[in-house]
Amino acid sequence: MIIATGTASGKSLAYLVPAVAEIFSGGTVLYLTPTKALAADQLRALRKLRLTQVRAATYDGDTPPEERRWVRQNANYVLTNPDMLHRSILPRHSSWSSFWRRLRLVVVDECHGYRGVFGSHVAQILRRLRRVAARYGSSPVFLLASATASDPAAAGMRLTGLEMAEVTADASPRGSTTFALWEPPLTDLRGESGAPVRRTATAEAADLLADLVIEDVRTLAFVRSRRAAEAVALTARRTLEEVEALLDAGPAPYGEYAEGVPEEVGGVGAGGALGDVGAFGGAAGGAVGGAFEAAGGTVDATGRTFETAGRTSDAAGRAFDEIGGRERSSSGAAEASQAAETEEAGELGGGRRTDRGGRLADRVAAYRAGYLADDRRVLEKALRSGELTGLATTNALELGVDVSGLDAVLIAGWPGTRASLWQQAGRAGRAGQDALAVLIARDDPLDTYIVHHPDAVFGRPVEAIVLDPDNPYVLAPHLCAAAAEIPLTEDDLKTFGPAARGVLDDLVDRGLLRRRPTGWFWTSRDHAADLADIRGSGGAPVQVVEASTGRLLGTVDEPSAHTMVHLGAVYLHQSETFVVDALDLDAGVALVTAAEPDYATFARDVTDIRVMESLRSRPFGPGTLHFGSVEVTRQVVSYLKRRTQTGEVLGEEPLDLPPRTLCTRAVWWTLPTPALADLIKPGHAVDLGGAAHAAEHASIGLLPLFATCDRWDIGGVSTELHPDTGLLTVFVYDGHDGGAGFAERGYARAADWLTATREAIASCECERGCPSCIQSPKCGNGNEPLDKAGAIRLLDILLGA
Ligand SMILES: [Zn+2]
Ligand SMILES: [Zn+2]
Fold first, then answer.
1. Regarding predicted confidence, which is higher, 194 or 716?
2. Residues around the ion ligand 1 (C-beta < 5 A)
3. How far apart are CA 453 and CA 443, in angstroms?
4. Which ligand neighbours the alpha carbon of 689 most closely?
């Protein structure tokens, strides 16, 4: 059974009741979550029930050895994660025999988190679990809890290999959430190829976060990257310091700080976020004015957030608004300077500060997965206790601890999936209070499409939880692990799917498994489970170490190290910026030194793609659509320094890093030359390479709307003439060995996907292309060549328009 409903709709009760009932009748229950934090949280909830028959315990990496024994022998409700199941519980199944014998129910919570390569690994772990349980005579019911998704029963079946019944109706009561879709305004700045630059989502988020903290509104700001989490916290803190410094100065005569303030404010560049502070500093023509302006202006801006909204409601009763950018720099500044002259504004500043005690800036912090466990726990506690009012976080918190009593959630950039969006928005306003959620669009095609098509968010879900249990790279190590648990027999093959036989033959050839008349055996003394790296980071993580002190700042997985901590990269840690002095991939260490450059760095790479095999194909308009295997070779060759505020390129530095080869799956389309005749007519000629390149960028941007991936999980290559097809070809590939199911989903939903791609390009108001439509932040070619009008015409031909 899979229950796929919104956050806080009562899914926990839906599995707790049957779980407890099974325990009352002598059974045991296994509860799985993607994170340790969530398991700890569930344990707390379970203990609150004070049911003496329920002997619940977590079993994870933090459980001390002496306690583990007790859990194995006595617990009847075990909370754990897939990693622990994979590395410890399944390989040592015999020490859990009494638990297996009575196993009635397996709860798979937050199962939408099991997607892509990680999801494919979990799918195999659950098959191993079913086989081990069967050995002890158990056939447990699987009860899955998921966020809303398209076709949850199919996803549940892929994950478990079992037929699923689905529950999707949600009748739970909830407070109302005001939902704003927020598109930052275009600025006067010019970026790559003279494209107009939108104010960044992180800049808007930092401003809103500072505004909300001043208002004592408990807020989480979700951002997409570690870098952005640091930048938002850093910028919000600096804004609050500015505000406080001016408030501390008291009611000084007008003009006293006229020189200092705007300049100082202007200097806050690191996050790139304070672009328009100058605007409301400047309009006042005086620094004290500026100070109260900051207070008054934010009240106003915040007020407007709640009020402007002409609400519309969708069927689910959720209100949403579409707001086109903030007007703070114009009318906001004017209203603010008026507010500055009133006593009220003065009292607001002074009074609030004393209530709070402590510095405003200290009430904001950043939180992300790369931090060491101790740092994270301190931050979690501070947020729970209210010591912190504002926290900028990556989705590390998304599935983490239960942070209740939040009032507002800012989401800087589409979080990749509707499930994540609702999960994040659902953090605000629990216990039936009203709440505010703001989705701030980034400068990218998917975000642009979404703020202009609210139906994509509030209508029926289109994205599916995508995973590919048949990926041979994933399947192989789990077949070894399964054979080590209990030798594999012919009967087991159906459990592991149609790809299992071929993979087993290969494992025997490679000497990893032995074939005997009774089945396949693991004969090595090594732990078979060590073969699978289920979080898919690929290799040992690189440690980021401060050169002068030897302090370990955090870790970066090996593939990301090439782009995040290469020589010269700007690296952010807890609101401090560092520059990488050296990256030693063999030693797995990056040495960094504290610095405050006014630029950010972006790695560039060259990519080659070869078609290995087309597995499926069909006619598509006048062209052909394919799904199949490809080999992609990527090498990070240089990095760009870009001014944080504008994205203006300051320079490019070469890098010497080894190429990485990826054998993966791709979806690609080709168009025959005659179909392109219109596009190459003299007078109407388009740059075919630029058109294909632009269509590729935008289609990478839009695929996450249909498959639960983000644009960083997939890559693309486009060419006017590909040597393997002999035709104009656009590829979109999975960025993981063996594929993750994203390209396959693109193949299945190609018509909708490519139509949305065309729409996203056409609905962008820019003239010749910008990051909101066809420019890509990870383009290995520096976004050259691109032809926006050509891309629309090319897609029209492909779509048969
Ligand atoms: Zn554009
Ligand atoms: Zn490109």
1. 716
2. 764, 766, 770, 772-773
3. 16
4. 2
